[in-house]
Amino acid sequence: MTHPSTIAALATAPGVSAVAVIRLSGPEALAVAARLLPERAAQRLEGGAIRLFSLFRDPASGEHLDQGLIHVFRAPRSSTGEDVVELHGHGGRVAPRRLLDAVLRAGARHAEPGAFTRRALLNGKIDLVQAEALLDLIEAPAEGLHRQAVYQLTGALSRKIAGLRESLVRAMAHLELAIDFPEDDVRAPAGWREGVTDVRHEVARLIESFRTGELLRHGVRVALAGLPNVGKSSLFNCMLGEERAIVSTQPGTTRDAIEAEIRLDGFACRLVDTAGLREARDEVEALGVERTRRQVQAAQIVLVVLDATQALREDERALLRELKDSGRVVVALNKSDMVPKDSDRLDHIKTGLLINFDPLWVSAVSGEGREALLRRLLRVATLDVRFTPEELAVTRLRQRHLLASCLQHLDRMLTKSAETLELPELLAADLRDAADDLSSIVGVISSDDVLDRVFSQFCIGK
Ligand SMILES: Nc1nc2c(ncn2[C@@H]2O[C@H](COP(=O)(O)OP(=O)(O)O)[C@@H](O)[C@H]2O)c(=O)[nH]1
Ligand SMILES: [Mg+2]
Hints:
By secondary structure, the protein is an alpha/beta fold. It has helices spanning about 30-35, 40-45, 95-105, 115-120, 130-140, 145-155, 155-180, 190-220, 230-240, 285-300, 315-325, 345-350, 350-355, 370-380, 395-415, 425-440, 450-455, and strands spanning about 5-10, 15-25, 50-55, 65-75, 85-90, 110, 220-225, 260-265, 265-275, 300-305, 330-335, 360.
């Protein structure tokens, strides 16, 4: 980019709010902002002020548009590395739009999505992993991804990747000695291969952490399934802690799926209340039953709700058998308040099939067992992830792809290398490819298309 233009955009969400921020970045940022200010304020701005309060005027007509603060961040000590000016005016449906129009008429160009962050990247203020962390930070559906994003924004993941890459570069240097002085029978120092094996192990762990990343990003879907009237909708409401689904003594009341979100230890858990699973009596109900099947398919966890006052029915046995080996089922025996505490409760149900599921006693009415049920859902949801929020997790598919490619190159090299250093050129080439994959993660090597793809996901003004 030889002469970057000056861009501007609304940096805060449009709509009613106390304050709206319009951000400008580029070589003309100060000059453009000055065109909106009365003469005295414009002089102070150009004279080096970093913060002032002023009226904002239309650059052509001089009409007063708003009044507010102006913050100046001069290059290179700004978020984008260019001159940045922020106009803090009032929020609302009209004021920010009119002020932005005036800024554009004063000579700035409207920013594309992610344009500010892209400039920060090109000017070395952040790397690509940090840019993606910013995206995660803004999009985070729950605390888990937010915490991970904040951690990555500090450069934690970037440093980790850089460290791994450095180890590969060191290994490459040893191989290059062997290439340059073949007749000297240069021996690689002890531990050469182990060094690469360690990197391989770390790369594999990062790939593994993507499962955690997926959980943080997408949360988990839990479908409540069971016969009509067992209390699915009541339990759904009880888990949410509010009246959401329609509860009725009339079987088949919930004809469509209702969804709502709760938090399970920092990630989102989407509960889906479904219509009953039994054969429908009319067409509308039949549609509901069909949707239920699809919801059960689409969910990561199926919460099978049984009525503890009733013996297990054939449809329920069939459902349980179908899900038995899936590792994604939680069984709740609802209406525990109706079953005497001193009775042998499981005996009451008289079935061996249930014992395999370690069912939980709950009451949607009294709330008994609610906490245990949520804990169980958390445990099943995190069965195959290392879910410790303090640990780094890869949250982006782009990063995961590159790590997988890096792992492939390392494996190829390790297989070829065995013990000796035969054909060091080939080994060095694999290491070089593996190191390049790591570079691409942080964006040292990245094409315009990659950047286009990453930054198109941002909102305008970021
Ligand atoms: N005593 C008792 N009644 C319940 C409980 N859960 C649900 N019910 C009642 O069972 C009936 C059916 O509940 P509902 O949630 O609509 O069942 P669904 O068809 O499975 O969604 C309603 O009359 C509820 O009040 C519970 O834990 N204890
Ligand atoms: Mg219902």
